[in-house]
Design a protein that fits this description.
The complex is a heterodimer.
Chain A: H1 2-25, E1 27-32, E2 36-37, E3 43-51, E4 60-61, E5 68-70, E6 80-84, E7 89-94, E8 99-115, E9 121-124, H2 136-139, E10 145-162, E11 177-181, E12 193-200, E13 203-204, E14 209-214, E15 226-229, E16 235-239, E17 244-254, E18 263-274
Parallel strand pairs in A: 2-10, 10-18
Antiparallel strand pairs in A: 1-3, 3-4, 3-7, 5-8, 6-7, 8-9, 8-10, 11-12, 12-13, 12-16, 14-15, 14-17, 17-18
Chain B: H1 12-17, E1 32-39, E2 51-58, E3 63-69, H2 87-91, E4 105-106, E5 112-119, E6 131-140, E7 146-155, E8 164-167, E9 174-179
Parallel strand pairs in B: 3-4
Antiparallel strand pairs in B: 1-5, 1-9, 2-3, 2-6, 6-7, 8-9
Classes of the chains: A mainly beta, B mainly beta.
Amino acid sequence: MKSKLLLKLIAAGVIASSMTMQAQAHKAWILPSSTVLSGDEPYVTFDAAVSNSIFSIDHAALNIEGVEVVDPKGNAVELENTSKGKYRSTFDIQLKEQGTYKVETASGGLRARWEDEDGKRHRWPRRGQNATDADFAKAVPKDAKKLQVSQSYRRVETFVTLGAPTESVFKPTNQGLEMVPVTHPNDLFSGEEATFTLLIDGKPAKGASVEIIQGGSRYRDQQNEIKVTTNDKGEFNVTWPDAGRYFVEASYEDAQAKAPATKRTGTYVAVFEVLPM
Amino acid sequence: MQKQKKRFISSVLAGAIITACAVTQVYAKADALALTVEIPQLDTAEYHKPYVAVWLEDSARKSTQVALWYQIDKKNNEGLEWLKDLRQWWRRGGRSLDLPYDGFTSATKGPGTHEVSIDLSKADFKDLAPGNYKLRIEAVREVGGRENVVIPITLPLETSSLPISKTGKTELGKIRLSVQ
């Protein structure tokens, strides 16, 4: 009897840990063809994918229906030549204004997991389902067992600059986990230190864990990830070891959630290009 | 050729203040300078003349533009598209300049030695604070390489410190800063 229970617990543990691993293994990113540009209304093309190896197109296309591009004047920029392939999505934008553009896809809100009377597990919203917080009461049964409700936000973004870098696109929305740079993300050079601030719902995200991985991981035996944690001001620092393109992922979690949620989580992903000195 | 300008300053005041020191300082300040930049002959399947930028930079990386050679004659300003590849220059002011970079720009130059005149008594330079600076030369070639050469100088520049020569390894040949 006891050993059976133990086995079940071990099995549950294995399943739980493998699920976490899967979630960590798949990296969603939007990768620009150039980040620093000059000249007359140039174009930038983007690959958007979910991959195992950093910037290898090896797993699934990122859904780009929710991708928004904001120009230095705060106006929306049209995505051109959009295409969703098996392993990646692509789109182009034209830079008509001088300054820094933000390319992002963000989602979030209430997330629930529970079990019904038969012990069957449920989650809301289901994978790929569109849902708003107002639907919560309708979607989650009153008698749900082992109910876990979180307020979860996810943001994937990158930046490109025509001419001199500008700051206008860094104004936070104060929802979810966001990055406000101290060092401009389109002014990064190998060997130099850069500083970024993470905000959770507009306040410094203390103790967020940040993982930074250089592209080309397919050609290395190790990820060689840089792991840092944000300080009391929500800041983290990194000294770029090499020129290249980097995948930056930050995760934050605390209990300061509004009812019915008991947990607040945020994931922030960015792609930065670091140039050689 | 601009006339050579030498200024002799007797530090009478300084001598009066520093009574213990009876030495009268005399130095020559160099204003009109000649910078020669050699672009090497390269044996390569596809050769394009390099983009070259020359600028003077203080210890806080604040920069004063000296020269820019780029593809000035291309239609629709297409030559501007590659200016960002002069990466260090782009970061140190290139990206903030108003087009079409009047006053210090010219067309790209081929292999050979080219001269740039620098008059430190002119606007942009004359108000620079005394101290240590870097005269920087950056070259980048389409489907080729990129190279930076740095010549450290101190302003006001004394003629006795000149000429200064440096030699690039790949995209730049001999660089020489001398009194004009």
